[in-house]
Amino acid sequence: MSAPHELLEQHLLQPVRRYEPIHNDGAEYIWDVYDEPDYEDPSLQSLRVSSFDKGSLEQGDSELHLDMPAVDEDRWEARQQPPQHGRTRQVQLTSGNWIVDYPVPTPVANAVLPEYREQGAPKEFTHMRYSAVTCDPDDFVLENGWGLRTRYEYERPTDILIALTYYNEDRNLLTRTMHSVMLNIRDMCRKWSKRYPHMDDGHPGWQRVVVSLVFDGIDPCDKEALDVLATMGVYQDGVMKRQVNDKETVAHLFEYTTQVSVDSTPQLVQPSPTSHNNLVPVQMIFCFKQRNAKKINSHRWVFHALGRMLQPDMVVLVDVGTKPDHLALYHLWQAFYHRPTLGGACGEIHAMIRHGMKLFNPLVAAQNFEYKISNILDKPLESLFGYVSVLPGAFSAYRFQAVLGRPLDQYFHGDHTLAQRRGTGEMNIFQKNMFLAEDRILCFELVAKRGERWTLTYIKPSKAETDVPEQPAELISQRRRWLNGSFAASLYALVHFYRFYGSGHSLLRLLFFHLQACYNLFQLVYTWFSLGNLWLTFAIIIQYLPSVLLHGFSDAWLIAFHYVNLVLMWVYAFFLALQFVLALGNRPKSESVAYKLSFGVFGTLGMYTLAISLWMTIRSLSHLAEEKKSTVDIVLSNTTAVLIASLAAMYGLYLLASLLYMDPWHMFTSAPQYFFMAPSFVNVINVYAFCNLHDVSWGTKGSDKIEALPSVQTKAQDQPDMVEEVAMDQGDIDMHFKKVVDRAVAPFHHERKRSEKTTDDSYKTFRTRLVAFWLLSNAILVAVIMNLYTYRPNEKLDDEASEGRDNQEIYFKVILWSTFGLAFFRFVGCVLFWIHHLAVRSRHL
């Protein structure tokens, strides 16, 4: 019998029709979904493609070459130029805007099943609409000539707007997110038909869902990801316009409804007339921003441009790279459907561990443990109060009506493109850091919205998988923004707590908010002093070792452990000081070796401390039977009582809660790695975050990729809105499309992007190493001088302290005499030079 997760994977992969090359000598290109198919498996119907470039496939090969090169940037730029051959057509601007329909490749149009063609609009599956948007998202309105064909041409209601935000992720991450979303839409439509049949009244379920994909800039994006979208029919090379009548394009908008997908294998997925598990058509809006303007700006396109035009009931935010699990979107929708006062919700995000293989990386395992504990302890508690402090932008949902007004206004303060309009440039450093955690600001503003009683909650059945940083440098950079932003946003929520009194919440709910505010305040104070508390815990515990655990050992053992612990304390102090040196002057990627070493040192010291703690606990418990006092008295009076309680809280409560939620495996697979990494989360990541509190830069750079795009300019004075364009014939479109498919389904090879060291980085690296050596040498000197006495366990502390003071006085005298000797030596030279000067002067008189 198959395991549950295997059955789930089989369920998710049932509708797949796989792309397999079928080779011949001819140049004919065949992709007809109604041809008699070949089969590689009785349950998986193949797609016939019989023409490929001779350079990429050899006669008789069964697979694409594994060394197929990635998309060349120069070739991509060349493909954006107008075709050299084709028919010239007249294109009329719409209110001065470039909005043009382009035919999609024939295979993409033919892939749509007849039943959906009948439900769709006349040109919905045969043409892709492209709009060169030359305005700000706030100005993307019908009055300015802009529109979305889903809303104004097809007149369809939008219940769910799913927004996928992308920066520079590879095509593998894009396909795993996109295909999972399309599977979720299919399963959601099925659930609607069975449990909520009224959802199909007037419009089929698939027409009530819109997926918007927002790319944050042409320059940073992976051009192979564009090939995936072109394979789906959502994008085409050579149609984007850099300018329209000297107005620079801000975003390139593509609209198309597709039934074709690409999974992360990568394999092409298309419908079969005989299958009952086909994907449903998905209404796609691809917003390709011309310049990089950060994720918050992408969300402004979602809410202010697309959302305001579509007027959805709920907006789901998903980062590319996050994979919604089976029915994840349905569970989110169901919560909003049954709870009219629900303003926002999030699901359970868990780390991608690839069947446990990634857990061998302690960083991944530690983050997996963090995610699990947060989902088991933190999110449920906050949901009980009705105010989840942060809904993660990687996978969360909001009721569109709830976020309109002040919540979105405050949320978009962090968008640098609104600097002049909103005064962002004049904000102080605290405010700028606060708006780095704009998702926390949105949550607070939504719950505290004047006159309303919106709540936030956590939906555990809704799960999503996300990729987590696997290198210390990546993790440090990620957490800097999280920690600084959350710290400032937490203070913002506490300072503006009074705004809850103006909301429409009941007295009981306000009481919950007061309890939650006290809890958050305590957490904030605890976090603030975590650096000192961790040092005190380490120092006190290892000082207990000789006096408590080694009682009865020989003097040699006591002396050895004393000096070992002394060295460990100074090692701890040195590496802690080193974090400030690294954080104040270097990028994490330029000092990855130093950070890896720091993680290892703090992890080792932490495990040493934990071992001593466990030893002390066992020794303390073993003596309970020998004591005449009651157990309660022993625990209350014993110095290890706090240690026992902390260990029980650290592991015992975590285990009980995990068992309660029937999700305990992380306690065995990830807890040891988390405890190893925990000291570094405080001593390394917190130090870096606070030392870089000033880092709130938003700057963007110019792009050669943008300059490669053609412009549109009206020339005829008698027809000011007419533009001539060279259009590709359908045959040319299909021939170009076969190359796109080749690239989209080529075997994927992940190449880690290396960060080149700049000259400035090299200078900082030299400075860092010099300062680190200087710090180390001085630390060794201080350690030696401060402990210039011979440790003898049987002598009194006063005698040892007296001996230490005598030795320190001797060293002090040495320092004084050395200083005097250096000064006297310089003085002798000065006198001799003066004598020599007088002698020479008298000779010349």
Automatic annotation (TrEMBL):
Source organism per UniProt: Malassezia arunalokei
Main localization of the protein described in the UniProt heading: membrane
Function: Polymerizes chitin, a structural polymer of the cell wall and septum, by transferring the sugar moiety of UDP-GlcNAc to the non-reducing end of the growing chitin polymer.
GO CC terms: cell septum; cytoplasmic vesicle membrane; plasma membrane
Taxonomic path: Eukaryota, Fungi, Dikarya, Basidiomycota, Ustilaginomycotina
Record-annotated Chitin synthase N-terminal domain positions: 88-159
Membrane-topology descriptor: Multi-pass membrane protein
Reaction it catalyzes: [(1->4)-N-acetyl-beta-D-glucosaminyl](n) + UDP-N-acetyl-alpha-D-glucosamine = [(1->4)-N-acetyl-beta-D-glucosaminyl](n+1) + UDP + H(+)
Keyword annotations: Cell membrane, Cell wall biogenesis/degradation, Cytoplasmic vesicle, Glycosyltransferase, Membrane, Transferase, Transmembrane, Transmembrane helix
Pfam families: Chitin_synth_1, Chitin_synth_1N
Molecular function terms, GO-annotated: chitin synthase activity
One GO term of the biological process aspect: cell wall organization
Protein name (Swiss-Prot/TrEMBL): Chitin synthase
Enzyme class: transferase
Domain of life assignment: Eukaryota
Enzyme Commission designation: 2.4.1.16
Subcellular location: Cell membrane; Cytoplasmic vesicle membrane
Sequence similarity: Belongs to the chitin synthase family. Class III subfamily.
Membrane-traversing stretches: 535-554, 566-585, 597-618, 639-662, 770-790, 810-835
